[in-house]
Structure formats: structure tokens, C-alpha cells
């Protein structure tokens, strides 16, 4: 960018080749230590976070087979409705350190620190340490990042793998390295094994950046990209092939699929169904049916409100990751404009194509997908926002002798401060002084830039600090509040405690609370499964609280055909299940299909008893 703004006659030197300023090392250390403190401090208050994934991680500590498949129980009846990469890491942590909330969540927190560090390294290599630090800080101080990196959803490892892929693309861009491009493909492939097709949203940006800017011939760029595509397929496909070749009778049912295959899950419920609104709440076919008491927004069936470019700025989405999004988009446009006459291999433009492409594609998909979408998905957008803004802001600052660059930089700061004020005003009772301080700092920084105060002797650093405070105060305060607030359930939200109730009302698909009397019963059992209950959203609490295996009938939603009635009857005949716990419900239809058949059979053949306030059936004592 500075090639156009400052019009130097010589080529811009590679940031890696320049002498590293003394402030870089302590700054990077402070960034990583601060991120670690933010993500690791008082993790215990989060408890099991999302009980659904915690239940599967627990099963993985009991059974290697359950760990490999991502099963919900060590008996391997049914899997989670996602691939198992994140469960592999959390399950191995539980095996190594003993299964607990700490061993479950620490890997996710460390993934967050690693993501921030890798983002810094990736941005630094093309745009220098200043841009890298801005990008790393931007990611660390995104509220949804503080939420997901302290949680056990697969999104934390998805971000780490995709940032690692981007770092590999950057290394490949430097010398047209086939090795690094193949490693980028491997990272994206393992991202697929974490959250399926969502990992592929970065591929257009990776391809565009390398195809345009790699310093080699067009023919070589093309075959290298095809080789990288092969690396994606191999690293994503090996697990799919193993599951497909494994005898169906000897493996768990693939939850969320309609035909018990991973590919149908990937391209159906977790793929095209998410984008085009044909998703289901688990296997068993049929259309999407919310539970009683939940009304979906008029604009879509995926819990995301109206589709369109305003989605990521409105409602619950706005506070998750949009704090720096307007400035990042404007910075991307400005950066591409100022580098329009630069050589094909210009490093700044290559960086903007890479991270800006990530930002644009992911934003458009999240804005217009009409299937199941949750606001916390936007954590996958955060690295693109942070890196794009870090690169563009740094280059505009370097070229601020040009009035156009200085004006654009002032606009970015003004937009960020105003939008931060709007977002903070959505929780008006929470620390109102922050949003007014944000406006004051933003106005002071904009004025300093427009009137050239940064060009006075020794005032440049002070103006830079003032601008950073004005830009980051809003998102930083919301991030700190997120980390200080306990979150749980399947649909967590960023923000302070006063905002944590935002969402879908009384039927927000949260896990149920296990009855202590039932837990005491389960702890006395010695059978293969202590109990069975419909839907993992309820049965997860039983397994986690009792430390005993529980069969989640029907998987996540209770609607998967696993186990069948005949299989369940055989388990009971073999003495493998001690109790059936009534009251189970899935997210999208517990009590119908196979789950309903099993419930009816139990009610007809076994006497009920009451444990606390819960109805329980002793499956070892038939009434016939």
C-alpha cells in the first residue's frame, strides 16, 4: 500500500528482512500472556459448558472406539452430529489429566492462545510486526472469541486449524513453496474433520491469494493449487473412508444423517441444509420442527433472524464479532484501491486478498444462509476481520503523509467508535460510562489525525495509542465481560451477565438439570449403561453428574433411529441397562419416531418409581 501512498522508487523490503524493533518481543509476549490470562482465568465457573460435547469427550476417556468415532457413550450406539476432531483433543486431555471441567476446557483455551499467536506470525510475515500485533489483539479482544475459546464446542479448534492454514499459505506465497501449500491443504482438511463444510469457506481466499500473488509461473501456480486440493481431500477423507469401510453393525450410528453415512451428514444436515434451510435437528428425515414454546424468526428457519447483509450487525449477532467489521470492510476497499497499480506479487495486496477474501466470503455466507445458524458461528469470521483491519490500518498509518490515507484512517476510527457506542447502547444498564468514554476517545483520535497532530515532534506514538484506545475500548470491554460471565448450554451468547439472557426465550435448547436423587441411583449401578434417556441434551447431564455411562436414545435430538426398538429390547434382555429415565427431550423432536416407540414399550412393561421429582423405570424388573 505504501508503494502508492508514498511513491517510493525502490521495492518495499520484506518485513522479515528488516531489523526487528526492540519493542516487538515484549509486545508479543504481553499479547500472548494477556490472551492466556483472559482465556484461562477461572475456567471452572464454566462447568461442563456444552454438556452435549462434554458427554462425548467423557465417553472418549472410557473407550478408544468412542473417541475415534465421537460417540456419545462408551457403548457406541450413536455419535455426535459433528466429526470428532475437537473430541479427540479433549478426550485425550481427559485421559492424560483425568476427566474434569479443567481438562475438558483447557485445550480450547490453549487453542485460542495458539490462534492469536499464529495470526500474529502470519500477518507479520507480509505486513510487519505492527500489523501482526494489531491483528492478534483484534482477535483476542473479540467477544465471541473469548466465549468460544473458553467453551467445548468445536469452533475453537476450527479457528486454530484455519488460521494455521492461512499461515501456511503466507509461507507458500513467499517463495512459491509447494510444501507449505500442501500443509495449508492439510490444515483445512482437518478443519473439515472438526466442523465439516464450514472449514471450506476460507478456500476461495486461499486460492485467490496464491493464484494472484505467488512468485512463479501461472502453470506452476495451477498445478500447485490442484496438489493442495488433493491434500485437502486426503486429510479430510481418510476418516470418512475408515468409517465407510467399518462394518455398520460394529460402529455407532452417524447422528444427524438420514442414511448412517458421514457424507450425507456433511452435505445434508451439516452442509447444504445449513445454507439453504433444509436442515433437520438430527437424523430420521423430515422437515425442521422446533420444540414446543419456540417460535422461529420470520425471516428464516435457522435461528438467525432475517437473512441479508444486516444480519451480522443486528440482534444477538451484533455483539459477537461485528465491532471491527465495518472498519475492516472499509480498510479492505481502501487497501485494494491504493495497491491497484502495484506489481502482481505485491505483499500488501496479497495479504489483503488472503484475509479480506476470508472476511468477504464468510460474511456473505453467514449473512444469507437460511438453515440452522447460531451467532457464535461468527468466531470463524473474527480472524479475517482482525487481520484485514490490522493490515489496512498499519499501511494507512505508514502512508499518513498522504492526506487521503490519513482521512481514510480517521474514517475507520470514527466508524469503529460510533458502531461500538451503538452496540454498547444495546445493554444500556451495563457500565454506560464506557460507551461515552469510547466516543470521547474516538473523537479525539479522529481530530488528531485530521489536523495532523500525529506529525508533530514525538506526538505520533501518543496519537497511535489514542486511536487504538478509541477503536478497541468497546470490543475489549465486552470481551472482558464475556470472560467474567459463566456460560452454559448449546447456544451461549457473548457479553455481560445482564445480556446473557438474550436469545430465543424459554425454549432455547439448553440442557436439562439432572435430579440429584436420580444421580444417586445411577451411581449405584454396575451395568454397561447406568440408564437410558431420550435425547442427549437431557441425558448428558446424567452421565456427567453421575460419572456413569448413559445411553442417549436418538442422539442429540432424540430423533435418530439409534438404537432401534429391537436393539433396545435386546440391551434390556442382556441386562445392559439398569434404568430408563423419563422426561427426556431432544432439541427437535424427542418423543417421536424410535424414541417414542422405546418410551411406549418401557411404560407398558416396567413399573415406574419416583426419584426426587423424576419418573424412573427399573429395567431389571419387568411387570410381566
TrEMBL record:
Its EC number is 2.4.-.-. GO terms for cellular component: plasma membrane. GO terms for molecular function: pentosyltransferase activity. One of its GO terms (biological process) is lipopolysaccharide biosynthetic process. It is found in: Cell membrane. Pfam families: PMT_2 (PF13231), YkcB_C (PF24878). The keyword 4Fe-4S does not apply. Residues 81-235 form the Glycosyltransferase RgtA/B/C/D-like domain. It is an enzyme of class 2 (transferase). The keyword Glycosyltransferase applies. Keywords: Cell membrane, Glycosyltransferase, Membrane, Transferase, Transmembrane, Transmembrane helix. The chain crosses the membrane at residues 23-41, 96-123, 129-149, 180-213, 225-249, 321-338, 350-369, 375-391, 403-427, 433-451, 463-484. Residues 524-605 form the Putative mannosyltransferase YkcA/B-like C-terminal domain. It is a multi-pass membrane protein. Its main location: membrane. This is Glycosyltransferase family 39 protein.
Amino acid at each position: 500500500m505504501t508503494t502508492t501512498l508514498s511513491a517510493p522508487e525502490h521495492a518495499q523490503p520484506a518485513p522479515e528482512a528488516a531489523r526487528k524493533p526492540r519493542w516487538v518481543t515484549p509486545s508479543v509476549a504481553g499479547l500472548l500472556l494477556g490472551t492466556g490470562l483472559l482465556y484461562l482465568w477461572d475456567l471452572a465457573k464454566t462447568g461442563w459448558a456444552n454438556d452435549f460435547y462434554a458427554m462425548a469427550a467423557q465417553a472418549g476417556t472410557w473407550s478408544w472406539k468412542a473417541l475415534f468415532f465421537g460417540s456419545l457413550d462408551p457403548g457406541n450406539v450413536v455419535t455426535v452430529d459433528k466429526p470428532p476432531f475437537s473430541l479427540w483433543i479433549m478426550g485425550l486431555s481427559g485421559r492424560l489429566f483425568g476427566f474434569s471441567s479443567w481438562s475438558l476446557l483447557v485445550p480450547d483455551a490453549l487453542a485460542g492462545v495458539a490462534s492469536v499467536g499464529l495470526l500474529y506470525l502470519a500477518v507479520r510475515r507480509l505486513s510487519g510486526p505492527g500489523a501482526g500485533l494489531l491483528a492478534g489483539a483484534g482477535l483476542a479482544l473479540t467477544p465471541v472469541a473469548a466465549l468460544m475459546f473458553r467453551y467445548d464446542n468445536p469452533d475453537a479448534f476450527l479457528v486454530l486449524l484455519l488460521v494455521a492454514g492461512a499461515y501456511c499459505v503466507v509461507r507458500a506465497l513467499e517463495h512459491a513453496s509447494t510444501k507449505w501449500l500442501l500443509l495449508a491443504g492439510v490444515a483445512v482438511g482437518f478443519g473439515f474433520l472438526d466442523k465439516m463444510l464450514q472449514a471450506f469457506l476460507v478456500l476461495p481466499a486461499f486460492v485467490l491469494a496464491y493464484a494472484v500473488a505467488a512468485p512463479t509461473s501461472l502453470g506452476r501456480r495451477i498445478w500447485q493449487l490442484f496438489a493442495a486440493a488433493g491434500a485437502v481431500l486426503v486429510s479430510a477423507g481418510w476418516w470418512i473412508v475408515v468409517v465407510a469401510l467399518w462394518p455398520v453393525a460394529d460402529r455407532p450410528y452417524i447422528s444427524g444423517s438420514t442414511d448412517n453415512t458421514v457424507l450425507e451428514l456433511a452435505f445434508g444436515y451439516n452442509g447444504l441444509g445449513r445454507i439453504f434451510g433444509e436442515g433437520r435437528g438430527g437424523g430420521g428425515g423430515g422437515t425442521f420442527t422446533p420444540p414446543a414454546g419456540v417460535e422461529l424468526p420470520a425471516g428464516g428457519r435457522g435461528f438467525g433472524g432475517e437473512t441479508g447483509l444486516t444480519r451480522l450487525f443486528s440482534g444477538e449477532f451484533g455483539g459477537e464479532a461485528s465491532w471491527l467489521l465495518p472498519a475492516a470492510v472499509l480498510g479492505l476497499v481502501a487497501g485494494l484501491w491504493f495497491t491497484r497499480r502495484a506489481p502482481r506479487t505485491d505483499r500488501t495486496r496479497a495479504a489483503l486478498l488472503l484475509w479480506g477474501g476470508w472476511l468477504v466470503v464468510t460474511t456473505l455466507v453467514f449473512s444469507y444462509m437460511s438453515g440452522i445458524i447460531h451467532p457464535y458461528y461468527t468466531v470463524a469470521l473474527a480472524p479475517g476481520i482482525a487481520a484485514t483491519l490490522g493490515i489496512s490500518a498499519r499501511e494507512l498509518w505508514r502512508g499518513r503523509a498522504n492526506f487521503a490515507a490519513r482521512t481514510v484512517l480517521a474514517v475507520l476510527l470514527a466508524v469503529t467508535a460510533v458502531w461500538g457506542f451503538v452496540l454498547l447502547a444495546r445493554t444500556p444498564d451495563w457500565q454506560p460510562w464506557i460507551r461515552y468514554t469510547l466516543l470521547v476517545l474516538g473523537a479525539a483520535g479522529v481530530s488528531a489525525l485530521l489536523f495532523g497532530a500525529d506529525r508533530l515532534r514525538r506526538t505520533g506514538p501518543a496519537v497511535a495509542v489514542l486511536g487504538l484506545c478509541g477503536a478497541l475500548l468497546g470490543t475489549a470491554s465486552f470481551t472482558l465481560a464475556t470472560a467474567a460471565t459463566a456460560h452454559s448450554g448449546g447456544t451461549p451468547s457473548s457479553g455481560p451477565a445482564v445480556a446473557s439472557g438474550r436469545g430465543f426465550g424459554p425454549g432455547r435448547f439448553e440442557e436439562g438439570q439432572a435430579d440429584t436423587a436420580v444421580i444417586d441411583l445411577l451411581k449405584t449401578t454396575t451395568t454397561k449403561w447406568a440408564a437410558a434417556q431420550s435425547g442427549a441434551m437431557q441425558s448428558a447431564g446424567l452421565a456427567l453428574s453421575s460419572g456413569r455411562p448413559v445411553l442417549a436414545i436418538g442422539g442429540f435430538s432424540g430423533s435418530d433411529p439409534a438404537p432401534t426398538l429391537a436393539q433396545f429390547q435386546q440391551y434390556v434382555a442382556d441386562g445392559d441397562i439398569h434404568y430408563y429415565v423419563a422426561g427426556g427431550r431432544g432439541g427437535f423432536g424427542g418423543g417421536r419416531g424410535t424414541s417414542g416407540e422405546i418410551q411406549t414399550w418401557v411404560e407398558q412393561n416396567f413399573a415406574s418409581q419416583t426419584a426426587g421429582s423424576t419418573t424412573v423405570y427399573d429395567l431389571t424388573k419387568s411387570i410381566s
